[in-house]
Fold this protein.
Amino acid sequence: MLRNTTNTWGLPARIFHWLAAAAILVLLSHGWWMTHLIPASPQRLANFSWHAALGYDLLAVMALRLLWRWLAGAPALPADSKRWERLAANSGHLLLYLFTFAVTLAGWALAGTLRTPLTNDLFGISLPLIYTSHDRAVHELLEDGHKILAYLLAAIIVVHIAGALRHHFIKHNNVLRRMWWSYAAP
């Protein structure tokens, strides 16, 4: 099933969700590893380059995901959802989108402040820089901003996962299952 329905997510939505989830998990863990455990060396620049490349591709996946959601809609929340649950779900999804875009755009701006600007995605496609500067203070500001936004995104993801698990294990509804690969709507 390609299209989203009132009961489940379609295949494109699932693919975009899990591609983005995997990329974000890799980027968050790689970013932490890269900035805390790798000493300054040529290896570190190679890691920054790969990190930026994956970030560019995440940005493309997120743009496609947002476009698909706009075109195909979203399944309804369970009928027994309370007002605060609907507000939390809608706010949580909005924050996930906003912070994912904010982190990736801050990273893209940061990529133009390095001595060797990072412009290629994982497929070798060269992208224009959205910001260029060799001012060290600007670099540090963007680096700190990118890092803080990434930590906030990680916290939002933890809340998102907790909400999905609550739906599955406590409320016993299909909210988590309908984003899973093997789920078929009743």
Remarks:
- The mean pLDDT is 94.
